[in-house]
Design goal:
Layout (H helix, E strand, L loop, with lengths): L2 H15 L8 E4 L3 H10 L12 E5 L26 H8 L3 E6 L16 E2 L3 E2 L15 H8 L5 E6 L5 H7 L2 E4 L19 E6 L2 H11 L16 E5 L8 H16 L3 E5 L6 H19 L8 H10 L1 H4 L5 H8 L8 H21 L4 E4 L5 H4 L4 E9 L5 E7 L3 H15 L6
Parallel strand pairs: 2-3, 2-6, 9-10, 9-11
Antiparallel strand pairs: 1-3, 4-5, 6-8, 7-8, 7-12, 11-13, 12-13
Helix pairs in contact: 1-2, 8-11, 8-12
Amino acid sequence: MSVYEQTKIALAKAEELGGKNGLNCIAELDPTALEQAKELDARSDAGMSDFWGTPVLIKDNIDVKGLHTTAGSLALEDNIAVEDAPVIRNLRKNGAVILGKTNMTEFANYTTGGMPGGYSSRGGQVIHAVNPSLSPSGSSSGSAVAVAAGIVPAAVGTDTSFSIIACAQENGICGLKPPVGTLPSDGILPIAKTLDSAGAMARNFSDTLRLYSAMREEPLPELQAADIATLRIAVNTANRKMISPGQNKFRRRAVRQLKRNGARIDKIEQMPTPFQGVIMKYEFKAHLEEYLGTSAASRKTLQEIVEYYETNPETMMKYGCTLLKASLEETPGGLQGTEYLNAMEERSKMMVSVREALADYDAVIVGGPTNIMHFCGLPSVTIAGSQTNLFGVRCGLMLYGVDEYRLYRAALAIERIIRGEERM
C-alpha cells in the first residue's frame, strides 16, 4: 500500500472517530498530510527507514510548522508554529507523515489541582477509546486514545511525571519516556525542562521503539529481546497497596511467569519524593516564558496568561488555575530561590543513590505509585499484555531502569511473557 493510501485511511479514521462527535482526541489535522504522503511516495530513498510512511499524531504542546501549539489552552490559541520542533524534523527525515495534533490535558496537567485527565479549555474532554466511563488519563490523553482506537499506529506525547506511561497503561497501549535530555526539547511547550521529555506511544513495544528511534538525532541500535533467564528484575513495592486489586493481581501473575521462565526477582522500595513538585513549580514560569518569548503567541508571560484565565472565568476557570498561580506567586527568588536550589541538590544526591541501587538490574517493575524515575530522569516504559481488565482495557506493566538499552531489551522480553508468546 502506498503512503498516500495509508494516509487517506488514517485521515478518514481521524475524522470519523477522533472528532468532537467521537472520541475528541484530535485537536486539528494537518492540511498538508496528503501532500506529505505524495512526496514520500515519489522520493528515491522511499522505504529506507523502518518508520517510512507511517501516519503519526503529535501532542498539542509540540511545534509542527503551520499548526497551533496551545497545550490545550485558549490563552495560546493564536500561537501557530513557524517551524518544526527538532523531534518533528527528525520524524519527517525518517519518513513519517505528520497527520495532525492531539488534544491533551491543559498545560500538560499543570493548570490546577483536580483537573480531569484529558480536559482542556481549547479541546474539551477527550473520551477513553475502550470504555467511555473511564478517564483517558493525562496529559498525553489524545495521543494515547488515538493509538488505542486504531486511528494511527503511533503517536508522540510528552512526559514530566507519568503523562506518557500512565496514559499508556490506562488506555491499554505501550509508551516510552527516554532518559531526560536524550531527545531535543526545543520547540516543546514545557513544564520543567529538568524533568520533561518527549516520547513515543504505540500498540506494541517494537513499534514504540521504532517511533522513538525516528524521533532521535541518531537512530537506535538494533535491539533484540533479552533472554528471560538472564534478567535480573526488581519490584518496587513502594505504595503497593494504593493500586487496584485487578492491577495488583496482574502484576503478581506476571512476576510468577517471569520467575518460572528463569528471571531473578528481588524486592526494593523507592518511595516518591515531594521535591519533584518543587522543581515543577519553580521551573514552570521560567521555562514557559522562555518558550513564549520566541513563539507567535501574543501572551508572552505567565502573568498575562493568569490574567486571561481570571478575566474569562466561564471558559477558563471551570476547574481553576491553582498551579499556574502557585508558579507565579509562590516561587521567591525564581531559579535562584533557596527552596528550588535545595530541591535540585536533593535531586543530584538521589540520582547517585538510585543509580547505585539499580546498577545490577535490567528493569524495575512499578508496584505502586512512585515518581522516583521521573525525579531522577530515568527511562521508563509501559508494556501491554493480552489480558484485559474488568473494563475491557489491556493490562500493562510500568518499568524503569538506569540503562535505557538494557531496559528496552528487558521490556521486549517481558512483553512476550505477558502477551502469552513465551512458555508459562
